[in-house]
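Reopening this one. Same input as before:
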Amino acid sequence: MTATLTTQTMNGKPVFAVPAKSVLNMKSGFRHKLLCDGPTFTAGSACVYSCQFCYVEDLMRKSPHMQGIDRPHEEVVVRREGANDALRKQLAHSNGKPRYPDPADNRVLYMSPLVDVAGNITLRDETIEACKLILELTHWHIRILSKSNLLPTIAEALAEHRHRMIYGVSTGTLDDDLAKSFEIGTALVSRRLASLHWLQDHGYRTFGMICPSLPQTDYAAYALYMREAIGADRCEHVWAEVMNVRGESMTRTVNALRAAGYGVDADRLFDVSTNQDAWEAYARATFEAHTPLYRPGQLRFLQYVTKATREWWAARVGAGAVLL
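Same output, byte for byte:
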């Protein structure tokens, strides 16, 4: 499977296409993050955005989807050609009858583990069509996460199914300029949050995603600001996470912060990244600042654990720790 360069560009990046043999993963590891009940959908392998902390490059390093691409992962968009046709085949038999017809099968599907589903109008429209297929052929619910401000337009297009759609935007900071330094090409944090509030004001189901969060000088104040900013009282659940370290993501993020003039933040992140005890203290402080602010069962704090740290985190599963 070799990616083919198209004549299209998206968000200033060249677009490569690979045949969409499979876009639905029924046993995704994202189930362990509690973001879904197994199923995920993705129509791409490289995003229109270029977040410096992105883990996808590391995941896709040996993927056949990257064959024939001689550019860094963050500099290209890789789309799965015929994604929604492939989705229909995975959801329905050749005679058109659904493969998952049980009305009691209300599993939550997550969009998307690899790329942003609403990074521009074209992708938004593709996502709307994919959602319509899923809503037509299953009784599943759909959780959508984005760093764009286009989710309200998806919600309006699918308004008749509002009880089966759950929307969220992710951010680990409320500072537009700080976010722009390491989330390249995304919608401003302020616009993302405004779109989340619109969804909440209009009665749509929402969830919070506070990540990635940098080391702080005042964790309690940070957690409170973030809770208020996402309208947590109107979120079904709230996920939170510190920086997810994969491949060169930490180095890229530190360098991006420093290049944008955020030297103090860069130094603070570098310091915890080079000392395991400091990293663990940063993660625990972030978690403990969040826990008092949420009703029981609402917080889902994602934490990669080691043999040495597992016991501490396992004792706090009841407070919202999700061990990965």
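So the earlier flakiness isn't reproducible anymore. For the record, The mean pLDDT is 96.
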